[in-house]
Design brief:
The protein has about 180 residues and is mainly alpha-helical. It has two domains: about 110 residues, RNA polymerase sigma factor, region 2, helix turn helix motif (Rna Polymerase Sigma Factor, Chain: A, Orthogonal Bundle), CATH 1.10.1740.10; about 80 residues, Orthogonal Bundle (Arc Repressor Mutant, subunit A), CATH 1.10.10.10. It contains eight helices and no strands. α2 runs antiparallel to α3 and α6 packs across α8. It starts with 5 loop residues before the first helix and ends in an 8-residue tail after the last helix. About 5% of the residues have low confidence.
Length: about 180
């Protein structure tokens, strides 16, 4: 399928949200590469990103009725895909802990983990810590600093005043900064 622009995706998404099954199938085909890229920004291995992609596409298919067109469909999609990637990470982490030898936690081996991959692991771990204490700060931070949406898009997507979004992102950055520091 040819790449659709934002206006075309919005129109297709609104038709799908209204119950048009053909529009939903076309929409899912059109967004799959974009969802894979979003998930790939957060997850280390292509197989993990693919798992998150499939979960995100399923969520889009089942939750498209909640898309009301208040923001761009791509903005809504970024939130769905980012949350799917974080959910996949939590599932993988839980599975890893369940299969750890002698109940010892499994950690990334610094000799086999690239700096970029390691920093993504650190960020996902920091987001998990932040979610436990301040869950309302996580989504705005991910949408801004990982998915690179602008503040206005995030405010529209989360239906939250712009000033509140900026404040939440600022507080989230302050909260995770110590968790991301390199320790010798």
């Amino acid at each position: 399928m040819e790449q659709l622009g934002p206006d075309e995706l919005d129109e297709l998404a609104l038709r799908a949200a209204g119950g048009d099954r053909d529009a939903l199938e076309d929409l899912l085909a059109a967004i799959q590469p974009r969802v894979r890229r979003i998930c790939g920004r957060m997850l280390l291995h292509p197989q993990d990103a693919e798992e998150a992609t499939q979960d995100a596409l399923l969520l889009v298919a089942t939750k498209i009725g909640s898309f009301a067109g208040r923001s761009r469909f791509t903005t809504w999609l970024h939130a769905v895909a980012s949350n799917s990637a974080r959910s996949t990470y939590r599932t993988l982490k839980r599975r890893s802990a369940e299969h750890a030898v002698d109940d010892l936690p499994v950690h990334a081996d610094p000799r086999t983990t690239s700096v970029i991959a390691g920093s993504r692991l650190d960020l996902l771990e920091a987001l998990e810590v932040l979610a436990a204490s301040n869950p309302d700060l996580v989504e705005p931070l991910v949408l801004r600093d990982v998915q690179e949406l602008d503040y206005n898009e995030i405010a529209r997507l989360l239906d939250t005043p712009l000033g509140t979004i900026k404040s939440r992102i600022h507080h989230a950055r302050q909260a995770i900064r110590p968790l991301l520091r390199v320790h010798d």
